[in-house]
Specification:
Blueprint lengths: L1 E7 L4 E8 L2 E5 L6 H9 L3 E6 L11 H8 L2 E4 L10 E2 L5 E4 L2 E7 L8 E6 L5 E7 L20 H16 L7 E4 L17 E2 H7 L8 H9 L9 H10 L4 H8 L2 E2 L1 H11 L2 E4 L3 H6 L6 E2 L6 H8 L7 E4 L5 H9 L6 E5 L2 H7 L8 E3 L1 H10 L4 E4 L3 H6 E3 L2 E3 L5 H4 L9 E4 L4 H12 L5 E4 L2 H5 L6 E3 L10
Parallel strand pairs: 3-4, 4-5, 5-6, 10-11, 13-17, 14-15, 14-16, 16-17, 18-23, 19-21, 19-22, 22-23
Antiparallel strand pairs: 1-2, 2-3, 7-8, 8-9, 9-10, 11-12, 20-24
Length: 471
């Protein structure tokens, strides 16, 4: 028996490879399927099944491409409906993978079709359960993504409570829990950094599993849920109805362009110029109106949160050799319209004598000195609301990056804005977007709040009233 968790940090997503006696199964595969095919080939195994725990909202699954390339059968839980060939399993249905048995447990609540898959060893003993977004380590799936008809978020939470109580919690304590996501995913709000655990330990530490009643469970899992990123519903639809082959998406994006070709294509198509370099490198020199979302952070989720149209043409500026990674990570969240990249990177743009822009970036110490001589500074904290409420500078205004499309219009092109996040990744995204929209006087505070905390600037926390959110 071989069970491998394949964890992708950028998406905080876990896929699973299972192999036994020459047969293999994949659970919740990512968009690019070559790694799964290679693993099976190395093991001299045939991929027999592709098990989907639900219609994923935060990434595009590789199920369709993998089925075409491997001949495997796609399996969904009860109530799922697809436009491609798939097997809709019944609750309790079993599947054999070599000497192993996988049993479908219908566990609706996160979504109506959500299913967990219980794996039993060759002796029939339950060994692990793949819980998808039903049960995480430290949390459970959010119940607000797939409400239907008159069903409310509270109705879905109640259904999730029944699924956990009737299908998951009765399993033996020693059963391993393998979820679809970990800390950093927007599919839950309190996920652990650990990516698997025993069910028994989760019963002791998971706040949702310790709820004393249905009412308490519903209250706790529905409190504090932020609105889902706008791309979630679009990714779920792609998973349900199908999508273009990843090979075709990759081929289209692998289009090296000279500076002149790059500039002409940008003007012809209205493409977003997406610069994926490190924030501080970007700040020193970039193509005017380009947006910085660095590959060294949660690149794909931030693209998904901030670029509203999945069909928006994208032109890439990347470090040499990073083209494939950028195209792949965009495709994982459904951004399939990369149309090329700047060959030779920003150095070639410079050599061609093209215009360049920059973002002024200062240290936290410099910021402290400036603020001491000017108490009228406009300072934007672009962290998430929970981060801001936990602790923030007294002088700052909460302007979460997630909602930049809503608050940009309130800013004045005549003013100077100092911007920070937690460490510098999100603040540079915000600065680049603001500059592209004509808010040219933006100053990035390098190192973000982590660096600011080492200065003498006054801070406040959730127990103190926060500054009025006006600009």
């Amino acid at each position: 028996m071989n069970i491998e968790q394949i964890y992708t940090g950028c998406l905080a997503e876990a896929a699973y490879y299972i192999e036994s006696n020459g047969e293999a199964a994949i659970i919740d595969p990512l968009r690019e399927v070559a790694p799964y095919l290679k693993k099976a080939s190395k093991d001299n195994a045939v991929i027999k099944y592709i098990f989907e725990t639900h219609f994923h909202a935060d990434f595009v699954s590789g199920h369709v491409d993998l089925a075409e390339k491997s001949g495997a059968e796609i399996v969904y839980g009860p109530t799922a409906r697809t436009s491609f060939k798939s097997h809709i399993a019944s609750d309790g249905e079993t599947f054999k993978v070599g000497d192993l048995t996988i049993t479908v447990l219908h566990t609706p609540g996160h979504t109506p079709e959500s299913a967990s898959y219980l794996l039993s060893d060759k002796d029939g003993k339950p060994y692990c359960v793949f819980t998808g977004d039903t049960l995480f380590i430290g949390d459970v799936g959010r119940p607000d993504l797939a409400q239907q008809g008159e069903l409310t978020m509270e109705d879905m939470a109640s259904t999730l409570y029944d699924s956990l109580q009737n299908k998951i919690l009765p399993l033996p304590d020693e059963v391993l829990v393998y979820p679809a996501h970990g800390a950093g995913s927007a599919c839950g709000k309190n996920m652990s950094k650990e990516t698997f655990d025993t069910l028994g330990h989760q019963k002791q530490v998971n706040y949702a599993l310790k709820a004393a009643s249905r009412e308490q469970f519903i209250k706790e899992v529905t409190e504090g849920i932020l609105p889902p990123p706008q791309y979630f519903a679009k990714n779920a639809a792609m998973n349900k109805y199908g999508y273009d082959s990843f090979d075709e998406v990759y081929k289209k994006g692998q289009n090296p362009l000279s500076p002149a070709e790059f500039e002409a294509l940008a003007n012809q198509t209205g493409a977003v110029i997406l610069d994926t370099r490190d924030p501080q490198v970007f700040a020193k020199s970039f193509i005017p109106s380009s947006v910085n979302i660095g590959l060294n952070g949660q690149f794909a989720p931030w693209v998904g949160a901030l670029i509203s149209d999945l069909q928006q043409p994208l032109l890439l500026v990347v470090e040499t050799g990073k083209e494939e990674e950028a195209i792949t990570r965009l495709a994982r969240v459904g951004y399939d319209n990369t149309i090329g990249y700047l060959e030779g990177g920003i150095e070639e743009w410079k050599n061609a004598g093209k215009d360049l822009d920059e973002v002024r970036s200062i240290s936290a110490t410099e910021f402290e000195t400036i603020s001491q001589s000017d108490n009228t500074l406009k300072v934007l904290d672009v962290r998430k609301p929970g981060e801001y409420e936990a602790e923030h500078l007294e002088m700052t205004m909460a302007r979460p990056l997630d909602y930049i499309n809503e608050w940009t219009s309130a800013l004045s092109p005549k003013e100077t804005y100092y911007i920070h996040c937690a460490g510098g990744y999100r603040s540079m995204i915000a600065a680049s977007i603001l500059k592209a929209r004509g808010i040219d006087q933006v100053v990035d505070i390098a190192g973000g709040y982590g660096a600011i905390k080492n200065t003498g600037l006054k801070r406040t926390d959730f127990a103190c009233p926060s500054k009025a959110m006006t600009v």
